[in-house]
């Protein structure tokens, strides 16, 4: 029996912050699918994870051939399929009306779709799945308009910052189905989709591989250390976390904070750390591999994530699988997973006083209680976020259309 074939299309792949996509692709292959990886860029990106380096070898890159490759692709498709090309051109221009990016950007999406089509035909792929509802999904939609393949897409979080500009309703209308990573994400898609298209939207959680669950239990350390994992940026709230640590230190509270990650806000965070004289309390790791992230989580008592905007962070699932309680915000899909007093603590986003209070409660909690919370967290995420269980749900959706 021939393997069902699907192409995954992502703006940048592999990417340090997109390990959840890699896990999903590998899980879909375990479900018996042949997966073609396609990305706009990423062939020269800095990678620290051996798994990502291997994935790059299996990925084709749309922009690697430069503008010449795009122009030749447009000429070929426009000459061989003029009617469909004209229809796709009209759709691309429609996407530029009241958008946050001008019409040349949308024509570039059309050119990228033309570039991908020969690859799909070459491999026999008739369906494309995109991650994120931005330009990656627009390219997939234009591939469908050109008659080459149907498409579906997964929505995470950033799409809800500018849904009108992204024309989410239009993308849902043309899609075979849409995946939301949480019930909250599904509710937001309902806001922008026609009621007739609501049945297209399905919840499939991001998942963790068995290796996360198979890690031997590591006792929660006595050191009063918390770790925050993620890109150093405004939306993750690390500046608020440094302010909270400063307040605790001023009160004489012993606390250590590890900021595991890197990003645009690193210089500002480093300045804030120096300003508050927290060099002995706060450490920034820079980009680290998945194995190193795991080590940092296990070396801490808990994961803290003071995010202002999220979908449902995979790092929360990873920490729960490693038996660590979670301190995080009432944002988006997070309360669907974290149970206050059972798996960790929740506090209002942007509330430094609330964050300080939660950190004080956490630091005063006996290790034995934290151990019980960690075990509850592990069981919770095991039930809800096994990558192979979630891949089976996704496989059923794919089988229904190919």
UniProtKB/TrEMBL annotation:
<dbReference type="InterPro" id="IPR050194">
    <property type="entry name" value="Glycosyltransferase_grp1"/>
</dbReference>
<keyword id="KW-1133">Transmembrane helix</keyword>
<keyword id="KW-0812">Transmembrane</keyword>
<dbReference type="Pfam" id="PF00534">
    <property type="entry name" value="Glycos_transf_1"/>
</dbReference>
<protein>
    <submittedName>
        <fullName>Alpha-D-kanosaminyltransferase</fullName>
        <ecNumber>2.4.1.301</ecNumber>
    </submittedName>
</protein>
<keyword id="KW-0472">Membrane</keyword>
<keyword id="KW-0808">Transferase</keyword>
<feature type="domain" description="Glycosyl transferase family 1">
    <location>
        <begin position="224"/>
        <end position="380"/>
    </location>
</feature>
<dbReference type="InterPro" id="IPR001296">
    <property type="entry name" value="Glyco_trans_1"/>
</dbReference>
<feature type="transmembrane region" description="Helical">
    <location>
        <begin position="61"/>
        <end position="79"/>
    </location>
</feature>
<dbReference type="GO" id="GO:0016757">
    <property type="term" value="F:glycosyltransferase activity"/>
</dbReference>
<keyword id="KW-0328">Glycosyltransferase</keyword>
């Amino acid at each position: 029996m021939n393997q069902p074939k699907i192409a995954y299309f992502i703006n940048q792949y592999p990417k340090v912050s997109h390990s959840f996509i890699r896990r999903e692709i590998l899980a879909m292959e375990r479900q018996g699918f042949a997966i073609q990886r396609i990305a706009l860029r990423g062939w020269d990106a800095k990678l620290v994870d051996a798994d990502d380096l291997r994935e790059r070898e299996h990925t084709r890159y749309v922009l690697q051939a430069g503008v010449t490759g795009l122009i030749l692709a447009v000429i070929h498709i426009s000459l061989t399929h003029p009617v469909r090309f004209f229809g796709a051109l009209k759709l691309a221009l429609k996407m530029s009306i009241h958008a946050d990016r001008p019409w040349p950007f949308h024509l570039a999406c059309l050119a990228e779709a033309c570039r991908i089509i020969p690859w799909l035909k070459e491999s026999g792929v008739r369906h494309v799945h995109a991650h994120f509802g931005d330009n990656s999904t627009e390219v997939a939609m234009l591939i469908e308009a050109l008659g080459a393949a149907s498409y579906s897409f997964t929505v995470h979080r950033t799409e809800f910052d500018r849904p009108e500009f992204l024309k989410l309703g239009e993308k849902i209308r043309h899609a075979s189905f849409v995946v939301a990573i949480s019930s909250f994400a599904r509710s937001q898609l309902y806001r922008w989709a026609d009621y007739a298209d609501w049945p297209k939207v399905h919840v499939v959680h991001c998942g963790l591989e068995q290796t996360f669950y198979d890690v031997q239990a590591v006792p929660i350390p006595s050191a009063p250390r918390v770790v925050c994992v993620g890109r150093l940026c405004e939306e993750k709230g690390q500046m608020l976390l440094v302010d909270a640590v400063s307040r605790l230190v001023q009160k004489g509270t012993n606390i250590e904070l590890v900021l595991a990650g890197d990003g645009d806000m690193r210089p500002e965070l480093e300045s804030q750390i120096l300003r508050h004289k927290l060099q002995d309390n706060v450490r920034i790791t820079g980009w680290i591999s998945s194995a190193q992230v795991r080590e940092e989580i296990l070396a801490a008592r808990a994961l803290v994530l003071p995010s202002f905007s999220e979908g449902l962070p995979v790092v929360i699932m990873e920490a729960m699988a490693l038996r660590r309680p979670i301190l995080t915000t009432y944002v988006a899909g997070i309360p669907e997973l974290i149970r206050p007093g059972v798996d960790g603590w929740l506090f209002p986003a942007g509330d430094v006083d609330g964050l300080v209070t939660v950190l004080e409660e956490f630091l005063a909690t006996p290790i034995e209680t934290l151990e019980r919370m960690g075990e509850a967290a592990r069981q919770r995420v095991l039930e809800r976020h096994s990558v192979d269980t979630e891949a089976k749900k996704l496989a059923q959706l794919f089988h229904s259309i190919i």
